[in-house]
Amino acid sequence: ESAAVDEPLPDGQASMASALALARASFAAEGVEAMLADAETTLALLPVGAEWYPVASFLVGVACVFTGDHDRAVHAFERAARYSTSGARTGAAFALAQRALLAADQGDWIVAEACARESLAIVAQDGIHIFGPGLVTHIACARVALHAGDIHEAREHAGRALDLYRDPSPVALPW
Fold first, then answer.
1. Are 65 and 26 in contact (CB under 8 A)?
2. For labelling, which of 2, 5, 7, 130 has a CA lying 20 to 30 Å from the CA of 112?
3. Comparing C-alpha atoms, which of 24, 14, 13, 17 is closest to residue 3?
4. pLDDT (tens digit, 0 to 9) for every residue of the chain, 175 residues total?
């Protein structure tokens, strides 16, 4: 955090400040309020088309879920999905899956199913088999399938989610 570099970075970050704020938001080591502030700082520092913009927006959404601001979380997840680029599709998959879970919580099964299926399509197309987006995508799909009465599909997705949860450990991202 004490680096003096303040120029665009090779990974597409606008600056060291935006990269640090994004890292702090991702790890949420100082709690949810700090996570939200850091994610918002990242959004303010990045142009809308930047590769990491959808991830920062997704993190705003996650923090808003934790603070109980579900309307703001929905907006952040939709923004993350809308502005995803080819290099940031994991952020879109993650955001769509979280949006599906929020819709399910509100009993909006049409939106829940549409978002879960779109997230699953991204995960399948891009071969995303990593902890965060893959796990939440399969949880969202399991929940939608269970609501639809498809026990077999629900179990299949729940099993995939459990496999992703076991390895690697989610300890780095406690949220």
1. no
2. 130
3. 17
4. 666 655 655 655 567 888 899 999 988 989 999 999 999 999 998 888 888 888 899 999 999 999 999 999 999 999 998 888 666 577 788 899 999 999 999 999 999 999 999 999 988 886 666 656 788 999 999 999 999 999 999 999 999 888 877 766 666 666 6
